[in-house]
């Protein structure tokens, strides 16, 4: 089972699936932050709320509009993400074999739920095969599910198709949710001198064409904010895990024998004073100032020897273009539509250190997890719209 080709498919089809991503995001936000009280401050569990929204958005582009909101499917997908989180956090006392058995059970259950849709689409595609399943934005076949069904090169029972869908979900939802939760904590701890220029930039980018991928590309402050958040609160201290296939000697004389496990220490690269000025300070416009606005080298999705949050080189994260589009769209939406703060009594407008104010990260091995219990206050912006 290979997730990378599915991630690449999502990337290729971003222009077509973007309107659906936005529609599902708005609908999920409205469920997580009830609109009848939206003009009052509301307390939201950040990590749960974000995982719910990103889970729904991913479900929409993976499964399609008809089945993505079915309660039984949503509940199963939620449980799978929770199982993975519990495993990473080492909360469950069970050994790995019990977790794998649970995963098999849930895969079987989900494949039974998806079976009628899969079989129906298989029949339809047999009767009227089409060359591409990602042609227009209105194409009802714009999903990973339908492209998996259309594949003829590999055997694809409902169970096998479901396994691919689950693997993609597990890879995509938790990473993107955790990274966005980190960014949301940075936002809640930022003052209006940071937020106001972001609002102005978003409004300028939306003027004319509205919410499109192209408009997102012009939101350089949003891009920089997320990149700075990933620099300081990247999900891993180590990345680019590799095993050497033959002996190698680095120019400094370090000898690597065959079979040695290697990784890049990205957290220390990201806080290296030789690479970043005031490396411990959260500087929302660091990457806007670093080059001319939008220069590719400083963009969120660009990897390099000084930015390793997506890995680097041939095996760099193939899902980063999708993840970046999701996070940029969500951050721009939150910044434009809501005031966000940490909690009553927190002076979001005071000067001060964003890193010191935001909820504390926790480390599990070399994984950096945002505070999963922290709550944020959200309020719809008065007079906006
Ligand atoms: C903010 C969210 C994400 C972060 C921080 C992230 C980070 C990473 C990192 C550090 C790697 C290892 C790269 C290397 O070894 O050089 C990786 C690999 C991978 N990621 Fe992501 N990722 C994210 C979202 C996604 C999404 C949304 C998808 C799918 C749509 C995805 C699919 C993959 C796959 C398939 C690999 C393995 C690539 C391979 O081994 O060839 N990731 N990711």
Automatic annotation (TrEMBL):
Gene3D superfamilies per record: Cytochrome P450
Matches recorded under InterPro entries: Cyt_P450 (IPR001128), Cyt_P450_E_grp-IV (IPR002403), Cyt_P450_sf (IPR036396)
Pfam families: p450
Binding site for heme: 317
Keywords: Heme, Iron, Metal-binding, Oxidoreductase
An annotated Gene Ontology molecular function: iron ion binding
Cofactors (names): heme
SUPFAM superfamilies (UniProt xref): Cytochrome P450 (SSF48264)
UniProt family annotation: Belongs to the cytochrome P450 family.
Protein name: Cytochrome P450
The species this protein was found in: Sphagnurus paluster
């Amino acid at each position: 089972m290979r997730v990378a080709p599915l991630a690449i498919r999502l990337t290729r089809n971003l222009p077509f699936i973007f309107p659906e991503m936005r529609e599902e995001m708005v609908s999920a936000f409205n469920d997580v932050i009830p609109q009848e009280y939206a003009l009052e401050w509301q307390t939201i569990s950040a990590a749960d709320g974000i995982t719910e929204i990103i889970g729904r958005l991913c479900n929409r582009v993976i499964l399609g509009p008809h089945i993505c909101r079915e309660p039984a499917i949503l509940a199963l997908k939620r449980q799978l993400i929770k199982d993975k989180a519990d495993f990473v956090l080492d909360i469950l006392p069970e050994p790995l074999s019990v977790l794998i058995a649970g995963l098999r059970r849930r895969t079987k259950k989900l494949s039974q739920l998806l079976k009628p849709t899969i079989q129906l689409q298989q029949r339809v595609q047999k009767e009227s095969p089409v060359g591409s399943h990602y042609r227009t934005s209105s194409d009802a076949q714009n999903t990973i599910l339908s492209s998996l069904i259309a594949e003829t090169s590999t055997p694809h029972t409902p169970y096998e198709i479901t396994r691919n869908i689950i693997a993609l979900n597990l890879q995509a939802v938790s990473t993107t949710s955790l990274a966005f939760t980190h960014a949301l904590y940075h936002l809640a701890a930022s003052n209006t001198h940071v937020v106001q220029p972001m609002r102005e930039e978003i409004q300028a980018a939306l003027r004319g064409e509205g919410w499109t991928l192209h408009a997102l590309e012009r939101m350089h402050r949003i891009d920089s904010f997320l990149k700075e958040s990933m620099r300081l609160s990247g999900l891993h201290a180590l990345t680019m895990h590799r095993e050497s296939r033959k002996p190698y000697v680095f120019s400094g004389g370090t000898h690597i024998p065959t079979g040695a496990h290697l990784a890049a220490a990205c957290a220390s690269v990201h806080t290296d004073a030789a690479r970043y000025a005031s490396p411990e300070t959260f500087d929302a416009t660091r990457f806007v100032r670093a080059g001319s606005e939008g220069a590719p080298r400083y963009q969120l999705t660009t990897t390099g020897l000084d930015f390793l949050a997506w890995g680097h080189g041939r095996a760099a994260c193939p899902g980063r273009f999708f993840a970046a589009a999701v996070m940029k769209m969500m951050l721009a939406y939150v910044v434009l539509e809501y005031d966000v703060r940490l909690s009553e009594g927190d002076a979001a407008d005071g000067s001060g250190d964003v890193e010191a104010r935001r909820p504390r990260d926790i480390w599990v091995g070399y994984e950096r997890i945002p505070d999963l219990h922290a709550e944020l206050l959200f309020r719809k912006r008065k007079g906006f719209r």
